[in-house]
Structures are given as structure tokens and as C-alpha cells.
């Protein structure tokens, strides 16, 4: 058995000579380097992708966050945004009802009466500085006969929005309202 082992090495098939002439060690090192590089690139993409998305505006997001058709369940909702300057009605051409005129606006009262007759949902979005307008709007809806008002209270950081694009649109809406 010892003779066959020595004969094998003499034929040039020994382990030392096989490693010296075979470039597979170099190929293995290059493959390891390639996989390490791919791993670093994937890690960087995962790390930087949220920051890249936050800088690019979402094409599908509207200029005004509340100007889109809103639904509660399967039913369409009438949206009123209560701010420091009064009520903004995105569905009514983004018309603004001044704070002092909320209770006395005949167009708003007739719109609310039509909503009650049609059984539509009302969504009141309350901006951080819109509590007075919200209070006046709720008084008007009570006088007209609205049973339910659904509310969304916004905060200054728009933390209610979990989606990055929605939060960006919310913050942009807040900046427009502040100017």
C-alpha cells in the first residue's frame, strides 16, 4: 500500500503539485471577494433607500393631502379641514370659510343638510391649531342634524401617517397652511 502511495506522488498527482498548478484557489478568492462586495452594496441599499425615497417627491401624491376622494368604509366622505383661519373644504373647490363665519355660512349649512339627506359620511380633519374651527363646525353640524362626524387629529410632525410619501405630503400641506 505504501508503494502505491509513492507511485501516485511520483506520477505528479500529489496534493502539493495539484494545488500549485490549479488556479481554483484564485477563483475561490475572487468569488469570495465578489460576494463580499455584493453584500456591502445590498447593505448600503437597504440603509440608504429610505433616505433616497424621502428626498424624491412621490408622483402619485396630490399637492393637497385632502383634495383626493376620501372614503370611510365603502362610502365616500365629505372632508372639512379645521385650521387656525377657519374651515377649508377641499371637495368644494378648496373653499375656505373664515373662522368668524362658520356658524353663519348659508352655503356650508346647505351643503351639510344635503349630506345629511344623502346619508354621506363627514370627515373632519383637525390641524394642530384648528380646535376652535372644529368646535364651531361641530356646533353647526349638530344644528343641522348630523349624527356622526369622523375625526382625524393631525399633529405637527404628521406622525399619524405611517407611509413615507403620505407623511411628506402631510408636512407639505402643513407648510402651505402656515404661509
Structural class: alpha/beta
Q: Overall 3D geometry? A: elongated
Distance between the termini: 94 Å
- Rounded mean pLDDT score: 76
Major pleated sheet: 6 strands, mixed
- Rg over alpha carbons: 33 Å
SSE string, helix = H, strand = E? Answer: HHHEEEEHEHEH
**Strand segment count:** 6
What is the helix tally?
A: 6
Q: Can you tell me the residue ranges where pLDDT is under 50 for at least 5 consecutive residues?
A: none
Helix content: 40-55%
Number of domains: 2
Share in β-strands? 15-25%
Structural write-up:
By secondary structure, the chain is of the alpha/beta class. The chain has 2 domains: 2-55; 70-178, no CATH class. The protein is built from 6 helices and 6 strands. It has helices spanning 2-10, 15-21, 24-55, 106-118, 131-144, 164-178; strands spanning 70-72, 75-83, 86-89, 95-98, 121-126, 150-153. Strands 1, 2, 3, 4, 5 and 6 form a 6-stranded mixed sheet that branches. A hairpin with a 2-residue loop joins strand 2 and strand 3 (86-89). The longest helix is centred in the first third of the chain and has 32 residues, at 24-55.
Quick rundown:
With 179 residues, the chain is an alpha/beta fold. The protein has helices at 2-10, 15-21, 24-55, 106-118, 131-144, 164-178; strands spanning 70-72, 75-83, 86-89, 95-98, 121-126, 150-153. It folds into two domains: 2-55; 70-178, no CATH class.
Amino acid at each position: 500500500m505504501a508503494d502505491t502511495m509513492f507511485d501516485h506522488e511520483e506520477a505528479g498527482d500529489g496534493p502539493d503539485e495539484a494545488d500549485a498548478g490549479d488556479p481554483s484557489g484564485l477563483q475561490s478568492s475572487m468569488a469570495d471577494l465578489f460576494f463580499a462586495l455584493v453584500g456591502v452594496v445590498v447593505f448600503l441599499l437597504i440603509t440608504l433607500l429610505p433616505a433616497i425615497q424621502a428626498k424624491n417627491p412621490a408622483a402619485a401624491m396630490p399637492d393637497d393631502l385632502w383634495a383626493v376622494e376620501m372614503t370611510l368604509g365603502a362610502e365616500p366622505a365629505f372632508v372639512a379641514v379645521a385650521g387656525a383661519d377657519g374651515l377649508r373644504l377641499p371637495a368644494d373647490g378648496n373653499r375656505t370659510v373664515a373662522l368668524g363665519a362658520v356658524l353663519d355660512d348659508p352655503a356650508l349649512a346647505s351643503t351639510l343638510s344635503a349630506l345629511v339627506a344623502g346619508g354621506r359620511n363627514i370627515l373632519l380633519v383637525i390641524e394642530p391649531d384648528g380646535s376652535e374651527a372644529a368646535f364651531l363646525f361641530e356646533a353647526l353640524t349638530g344644528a343641522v342634524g348630523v349624527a356622526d362626524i369622523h375625526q382625524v387629529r393631525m399633529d405637527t410632525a404628521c406622525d399619524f401617517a405611517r407611509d413615507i410619501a403620505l407623511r411628506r405630503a402631510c408636512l407639505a400641506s402643513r407648510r402651505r397652511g402656515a404661509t
